[in-house]
Design a protein that fits this description.
The protein has helices at about 5-15, 35-45, 45-55, 60-65, 90-100, 125-135, 155, 165-175, 195-200, 230-240, 265-275, 295-305, 320-325, 385-390, 420-425, 430-450, and strands spanning about 115-120, 140-145, 180-185, 205, 215, 225-230, 255-260, 280-285, 310, 315-320, 345-355, 360-370, 375, 380, 415-420. By secondary structure, the protein is of the alpha/beta class. The structure holds flavin-adenine dinucleotide.
Length: about 450
Amino acid sequence: MNTVMTSQEAVAEAQRCLHCQHPSCVLGCPINNDIPGFVAALGQGNFGVAFDTLTKNSSLPAICGRLCAHEKQCEPKCQLANTGEPLNISALETFTANFAYTHNLTAPCDSSGTKGRVAIIGSGPTGLTVAGQLAKNGFDVTVFEGQKEPGGVLLYGIPEFRLDKDIVHREINNLLNYGVNFVTNALIGKEKTLDDLFTEGFQAIFVGTGSALPKTLDIPGKDLPGILAATYFLRMVILSDSGKLDKSEAVLSSDDEVVIIGAGNVAIDAARTAARRGAKLVTVIYHKGPGEMTCHSDEYTAALKEGVQFKFLKQPTAYLSRKQMYTLGALRKGQCGGSDMHKLAGVMLQNVEKSSQGEFQEVNGQEVIPCSCVVLAIGQRPAAQIFTTTKGIDITPQGFVKINTTPYGMTTRPGVFSGGDVVNGPSTVVLAIEDSLKVAQGIAEYIADH
Ligand SMILES: Cc1cc2nc3c(=O)[nH]c(=O)nc-3n(C[C@H](O)[C@H](O)[C@H](O)COP(=O)(O)OP(=O)(O)OC[C@H]3O[C@@H](n4cnc5c(N)ncnc54)[C@H](O)[C@@H]3O)c2cc1C
């Protein structure tokens, strides 16, 4: 859980740093942030220097401070963890980004735009990072975003209670200060192709379009009304809460018994959102054990506190209608009738066990649980608009873009680069940033050579 620190608290916390000769916290950070450097500056009260140090590798420190799994990455590697509490790096990062915002600080930047023209498709963390890195280093950068506003999953996926949307707007404002241009409502592949962008004079194009198409479970009953994708559910709630969608279109009512399938960050966000919207019962179903969940551990704790229930080692094998639930004796006669008989009313779950080889496999034993809504959070894959309208970009059979390592991030089409979830599959913000930093370097090398 992210702590908000005062200046005094941040300085005192930073002064706990042991200034290790061989700091291992950095090894835990996927983007090699100079953690000892920014913490030392904070400890001396040099907040501006701390911000400059932090933004060398990250154009989105306010987001990383809040969304990175610090408890799994840098913090357990802190030497203080051996004897007590590790340094609260998450809160120090958030403090530094907040301080920079309050005092209008911007990272050191060459905003000449003279080194080359680059188009970025998509404005999630990947697109924003590539845009920020290139713009800071003298490139003329334009971001094309299919939605009304830039931000990707940060704006339309992660719930407000976890990431204040003002923080996203702030980070985007920083990029505007570096000279990045944004063109919104521009769905590339449909209205404009990558070839059109090359014709317009862009020397390189970066595709950071994420993986928005939800995966589904191919089990009996999959077409029953009431089965939603988590990304759709979260988006509808964000739009409805921000007044951009009529409240009557909100997707849950207080009578709903909701089953969430999956146990990553997306699943837990959906579960907590359903609980906060007053659903009668929210149950997360996961086919592995608690130790295998990919969500942040503090998100799991928060979900438990908010009344979300968890069923581990259960695999959904069928969605059941009211009629089927009635036949199975799981609904009484008075509880159903008429057209309701073909509505979703339950899920059949098969028991799963972990074998001695560590594999999860179905074993004897089933249970039926009632529900009026299923929210699926079992992964996503990329949409194909760009790859069907541009020749020469190889993708995997699952639809992910193939990239080269020299120059890093270039696809099989010269001058077209890619990174983030559209290459690696659904991942994390910090890994998207890690990838993007390398791709930005690859794009700079490519333009310098052509
Ligand atoms: C609900 C949820 C919770 C999450 N929680 C966390 C978390 O706590 N911590 C964490 O580290 N990670 C979390 N993640 C994962 C993280 O958000 C993603 O890994 C990250 O957003 C991927 O970034 P991206 O830029 O590759 O893709 P996205 O963020 O998906 O951005 C892609 C952008 O491209 C745009 N686009 C797509 N196609 C086109 C087109 N043809 N033309 C123009 N624009 C296009 C989309 O509109 C979108 O804005 C979460 C993800 C979700 C969905």
